[in-house]
Write a structure and sequence with these properties.
four-stranded mixed β-sheet, mainly beta
Length: 141
Amino acid sequence: MTSPGNCGGNCKSDKCDEWGLTSATCEAGICVVKGKSCDPTEVSCNSPQPDCDSGTLPQVDDGCYTGKCLPVLACDWVPDCDLCDDLICVITEGPGCTHHRCEPGIAECEGEPPCDCLGSIFCNPPHSMCSQLKGALLCAP
């Protein structure tokens, strides 16, 4: 049996094509899209923010909105856990910062206490402490 979330075939290039992205990689067993963001605090130009459908957020690249929307699963940031729907909301706490992101479920972790299985995958150093918070995983240093 493989380790939980080992990306064994889950990191499909067709998702990158579908979302208009050029690369994805396996980090800590999770397929992570590289090179784009959904964090509006990174916007430093005057580009208009696109209207996005439910379950998507405006894509940000090189300090500007691209005019496209990304599924929350492809975003590196979401404003809160409400957008994650059936995905796992991971909250990472740090000095003066709370970061939310949506992650896919991992079949090998179903039925396990969330922090026992998912904590080791989603709570990466320096965030080694995992706890459950209203249906989300909270990762703290």
